Each structure stands twice: as C-alpha cells, then as structure tokens.
Amino acid sequence: MAFKLIIVGGGRMGSALAEGLLSAKWCATSELAIVESALEQRGALETRFPGVAVLASMELADVDASTGVVLCVKPDYAESAARVVGASGVTRLLSVVAGLSTARLEAVFPSPVAVIRSMPNTPVLVRKGATAIAGGSNVTSDDLDWAESILSAVGIVVRVTERNLDAVTGLSGPMPAYLYMVVEALIEAGVHQGLSREVSRQLVVASFEGSAALLSETGESPEELRSQVTSPGGTTAAGLRVLESRAVRAAFLDAVAAAAERSRQLGR
Ligand SMILES: NC(=O)c1ccc[n+]([C@@H]2O[C@H](COP(=O)([O-])OP(=O)(O)OC[C@H]3O[C@@H](n4cnc5c(N)ncnc54)[C@H](OP(=O)(O)O)[C@@H]3O)[C@@H](O)[C@H]2O)c1
C-alpha cells in the first residue's frame, strides 16, 4: 500500500515531525511510514508510534503519484538516501538536511522532482520551532503549501529564497545556542550576587519564558517592552548601560554574520 508521507530517517528530527503530524491529524497513522536504517531505533519508533509503518528500506509499493517524502538524515548520508528515494519514483521531497542545496538534491533524481529545502531549529522537538523553507527549480506554490503544512505541525514556518537560507542558518538555526549562553551567563551572575544556583536558575528560566511570552502575546516590539522596564536613572538602566558599553549588540551582529558565512562556506 502506498503511503501519504514517508519520513526517511527516524532520529530526533524525523520523530519530532512524526509526533507533530500525528497530533495535528495531518495524516492517519496508517498513512505514515518512517524509514530508519538503525535496528534499535526502529524498535523505539514502533513503540512510540503504534500503527505507523516503520521500515528498514523504501520499496516501490510504498509509493504512488501522491506520496511525499521528508528527508531527515544527517548531511553525510543525505545524497545517498535521496538517490534511493529517487529510484522509488517519488516526485515531491522536503529536506531538513542542513547545508544541502536543492540543486544537489535535484541532481540525484532520475527525473524532475519538486525539492523543498528547509532550515528548522531544535525547538521543533517541542513543537515550538522556527523553520524557513525555500523551493528548488521545479517547485510550485502547491508544493510550498504542502511543505509548510508539514512543518507547521512543529512550529512557525516562513518562506525565503534559497539564497537567504544562509542568513537563516546564521540566525534562527543557532539561536537556541546563543540564548542558552545568555541564560548560562545570567544564572552565573545570580550566583555571583549571592543567590543559590537553584534559585538563580529558577528566576532566570522563568524570566526567559515570561519575556518570550510577553513578546509573542502582547505583539509589542522588543524596544517598547524594554523601555517599559527601564525607568530613567533606575536599576535596569544601570545594567543596560554596561551591556551597551561592552558592545553586546554588535557582538550579536557579528555572531550571526559569522554563522551565516560559515553556512555559505559549508554549502560550497
Ligand atoms: N536536530 C535538529 O535540531 C536539526 C536542526 C536543523 C536541521 N537538522 C537536520 O536534520 C537532519 C536529521 O538530524 P537529526 O538530529 O534528526 O539526526 P539523527 O537523530 O542522527 O537521525 C537520523 C536518523 O536517520 C538514520 N539514517 C541514516 N541514514 C539513513 C537512510 N539512508 N535511510 C534511513 N534512515 C537513515 C540514522 O541512523 P544511524 O544512526 O544508523 O545513522 C538516524 O537514526 C540532519 O540533516 C540535520 O542537518 C536537524
């Protein structure tokens, strides 16, 4: 029986997508298959997703004209995995593989294929991801809608040109790491001021979540929200003055530029 969707690679990203798609009722369990090469991981997937076909490899019978594939394997194996997908006759492929261009994926298919490339970030694992998508040379707006409907199950989706995926790879891709570094530093700062590590951690993590919720729920700009807590000559102003004098803003500009440039180098 042909499947509506086949996820190739049932690791962290592939299983997060399966979880999101089934919760969103994007498809029935019987319409979804996960192809996973690691035996132990196949067992874990069968337990986690009862009713979903967990396969060691893709067969011709798994695919018909409407079957789509999401490629979720590590970059090292991605082209060889895509070659197997191409041989099965699939005509629509969504890739989450970092740094692999649509042109390189199109080149491994024997006939024209709609390739959509995406750059998600790790919060997709808790369905709060930020993903950008870009279409290859054979992609229609229907194909982009299809890709967006899949990735929307694990967070927000924006559409960009493929050229801009390097900027996304510098910004939202590593942003969890940037923010965790800020969180780590602030927990340490609380400890330096005499708070226990646990109390400091609780205060910082809750403030981080609360600040993010204020941003998304009020719709106010970060500048407005910051000025609301910055009384003239007050404590917050004293703290912000230090951050400005240490050029924290410029450091973020440089960090995103460096990560985007690294993405360009790796994609060459
Ligand atoms: N994790 C993230 O937050 C994140 C963010 C952005 C982009 N991505 C992209 O997402 C992709 C997957 O990342 P991940 O973190 O989910 O990796 P992962 O946890 O290692 O999962 C990949 C899985 O695919 C299996 N696999 C390898 N080759 C296969 C093949 N030919 N057919 C079927 N299964 C195969 C692997 O098995 P083995 O262990 O036996 O190799 C592994 O279980 C990567 O290309 C990465 O660039 C991930």
Topology:
Blueprint: E1 5-8, H1 12-23, E2 32-35, H2 39-48, E3 53-55, E4 68-71, H3 75-87, E5 92-95, H4 102-107, E6 114-119, E7 129-135, H5 141-151, E8 155-159, H6 165-170, H7 175-192, H8 197-218, H9 222-228, H10 235-245, H11 248-267
Parallel strand pairs: 1-2, 1-4, 2-3, 4-5, 5-6, 7-8
Antiparallel strand pairs: 6-7
Helix pairs in contact: 7-8
Bound molecules: NADP nicotinamide-adenine-dinucleotide phosphate.
NADP nicotinamide-adenine-dinucleotide phosphate binds next to α1 and α3.
CATH class of the largest domain: Alpha Beta
Largest sheet: 8 strands, mixed
* Class inferred from helices and paired strands: alpha/beta
* Strand arrangement, major sheet: 3-2-1-4-5-6-7-8
- Radius of gyration, in Å, reads 22 Å
CATH fold assignment of the largest domain:
Rossmann fold
Distance between the termini: 39 Å
Percent in helix = 40-55%
Number of helices: 11
Low-confidence stretches: none
Please tally the β strands and state the result.
8
CATH homology superfamily of the largest domain = NAD(P)-binding Rossmann-like Domain
Write down the overall geometry. Answer: elongated
What ligands does this structure carry? NADP nicotinamide-adenine-dinucleotide phosphate
User: Which percent band covers the strand fraction?
Assistant: 5-15%
The CATH architecture term of the largest domain is: 3-Layer(aba) Sandwich
Mean pLDDT: 96
- Whole-number total of structural domains: 2
Order of helices and strands: EHEHEEHEHEEHEHHHHHH
